[in-house]
Amino acid sequence: MGEVEVYLVSGVLIFVVCAYALVVHAHLIRKVLALNIMGSGIFLLFTAIARRTDTPDPVPHAMVLTGIVVAVSATAFALALVRKLHQATGRPYLPEEPDRSPRPPKETRRNPERG
Could you read off the pLDDT of 7-44 as tens digits, one per residue? Predict the structure, then answer.
């Protein structure tokens, strides 16, 4: 297995593992970390694509550098949102879906004064 294949396989494995973590974990900081590491897997893929030929392609390298800047900014914004949510609700989780099961009808109470 060559160097390019190692980068490709590593990038795909990192992306898949972090996608699993993104779906499974409810804690928002873990989700932000999973998204950030997923981006690193994509960066590995772009690096492997850039090294396919003898002369490295500069376009994927430029995309990786731009992606790193965007990833840092997006991570900072997401962590700020998680902090605001924690301050507002006291927990770093998104609220669960409301219960959509049909509720029994409310009992109407009679007012004894009105009869």
Answer: 899 999 999 999 999 999 889 999 999 999 999 999 99
Distance (Å) of CA 73 to CA 2, 26, 101: 34, 22, 40
CB 35, CB 22: distance < 8 Å: yes
DSSP string for 47-78 = HHHHTSSSSPPHHHHHHHHHHHHHHHHHHHHH
DSSP state of 16: H
11: nearest Cα among 34, 31, 39, 36: 39
Q: Is 53 exposed, middle or buried (0-12, 13-18, 19+ CB in 10 A)?
A: exposed
